[in-house]
Amino acid sequence: MKVAGLGFKTDVTLASLREALLAAGGPEGLAAVATVSDKADAEALRQLAHECGVPIKAIPADVLSSIDTPTQSKLVMEKFATGSVAEAAALAAAGPRARLIAVRAVSQDRTATAAIAEGDGG
Predict the structure, then answer these.
(1) What is the architecture, at CATH level 2, of domain 2-118?
(2) Are the C-beta atoms of residues 20 and 103 closer than 8 Å to each other?
(3) Rounded to whole angstroms, how far apart are CA atoms 43 and 13?
(4) What is the pLDDT of residue 122?
(5) Which pTM does this prediction carry?
(6) Domain locations in the chain?
(7) Within a 13 Å sphere around the CA of 75, how many CA atoms are in the beta-carbon half?
(8) What is the pLDDT of residues 78-101, one digit of tens each?
(9) Mean pLDDT computed over every residue of the chain
C-alpha cells in the first residue's frame, strides 16, 4: 500500500497541499493520505483526500514521535518530537515494514510538506 504523509500549517490551502503532493510524486496509486491526529480534520486536507479518492489516516502524535525520519526540521522536532510529520505519518500509515519512496517535499509557500511511503499496511 502506498500512503502520502502530509504536514502543514493551520492556514494551508488545497493548492499548497496539492503542490507538495505533486512534488513528492503525485497521487497515482495512493491508498490513503495521513497526518498527525490533531490536523486530520483540516478542511484543505479533506478536500485533497476527496480529490484523490482516498481516506485520511489520523496518526497520534506519540506514534509519530517514535519514528526516525531522514529529514529533520528543528521546529517540527520541537513541536512533534519527530523530524518530519509528513515522513513519519507516511511510514506509520503504510505499516510496520514501510519504506519511504519519496522524502519530504515542500510547497513553494512553505505551508505544506508531503512524503510517500510504501508498505504492507499492517
Answers:
(1) 2-Layer Sandwich (3.30)
(2) no
(3) 9
(4) 60
(5) 0.92
(6) 2-118
(7) 4
(8) 877 787 899 999 999 999 899 999
(9) 93
